Amino acid sequence: MGRLQSFAISKSVIKIFMLSFFQIIGLHFFSKKLLLKKLKILLNTEGYTFTPQFSGRVALQNLIQYFSSEMESSRCLYLPDYICNVVFKASEIVDANRIIYPTDVRCEPVLSFLKRAIRKKKVGIIVLASIFGSSALLKLLNREKVRKFIEKENIKIILDLCQDISLLKHVPISKNIGVIISFNNKSFPGLMGGGILYHDKLKFHEKSLPVGKKLKLYYILLRDIKLKYFLRRPAFVGKSYDYSRCVHFPYTFDNYKLSKIQFILAICGIKKINIYLRNKIDTINLYKKEIIKTFFYETSPYLILANPRFRKELNRKYKLSYAKHNDPKNTYKDITIIHNKGFDDFYSKNFSEPSPENSYSQITSTLKS
Ligand SMILES: Cc1ncc(COP(=O)(O)O)c(C=O)c1O
Question: Hey, what domains does the chain have and what are their CATH numbers?
Answer without folding.
Answer: 2-10+224-368 (no CATH), 31-211 (3.40.640.10)
